[in-house]
Amino acid sequence: MNMISQFCRNLIARTTFEVAVAIIILANCFLIGLNTYQLQLHDTIHRIQNIILVLFTIEFVIRFFARTSLKEFVTSGWSIFDFSLLVINYIPETAFDNGLSLLALRVLRVFRVLRLLRLSSEIRLIVSVLLRSLRSLLCNAVVFFAFMYLFAILGISMFRLPEPATLPPEKAAAYAQLVEVAPPTPSCSPDPYGTLGESMFTLFRLLTGEDWTDIRYNLVKASEYGIIHVSPPVVTGFHVLWYVLAAFLLLNLFVGAVLTNYQTILEQTKQKKKETSAR
């Protein structure tokens, strides 16, 4: 057993082994994409993918024998990930009669593309950083959601357009003129601050920079026509404040959390390499 383990460790340590695995992963990803086209090669692609599945199984067995300890291998996130993909791909489609279950199986099989994340140590480092940053990102997301919820409520209170049927004749005429002069963007979109959900989505649109000036100009026109009861400076100040707060402050909190964890994991990786070299 020791001889087999040592042989597997030496095999994994070789650059040719990693290059071969990378080529197989890339070929598998290419075939997954090729299979989405209506080509007369479905059976051929299926056979090649079965061969690749066998090669992935052999790779998993080699990594199993090359393990430092059974506990470390079983608790490793990459080992669990690889084993899950193997189990999913060995489940035959004929085992499902339900169309929804079969669809779910096919969707899960597409996750084989994620094996690209194992192509290099740098990519694995980035994945480790993202996983470690989840807690910080969740906290930042709570703060972001709180501000978005606050601004959404404020937006509804100040900028929600009235229902045309409830307006008196003069206001209804002004509303019709507003729709003609400043139509919504796009034309099929509802009132940007009509509901809580739509208001929050509007704030997300503002964050991406899509048509946020059009929304602002339309609301300024609505103010000038007396449809909403806030002044143009308030409209401008609200949207500029949200854009500055969200784009330049809240999003940078997400970036800062990831960069901090990246630096921490990078230093830990360097320390492990030094300890390994010292041995």
From TrEMBL:
Q: Where in the cell is it found?
A: Membrane
| Protein name according to UniProt | Transporter
Q: Which residues form the signal peptide?
A: none
Tell me if Glycoprotein is a UniProt keyword of this record. yes
**Origin organism of this chain?**
Ereboglobus luteus
Q: Name one GO biological process term.
A: calcium ion import across plasma membrane
Which domain of life does the protein's organism represent?
A: Bacteria
Report how it sits in the membrane.
Multi-pass membrane protein
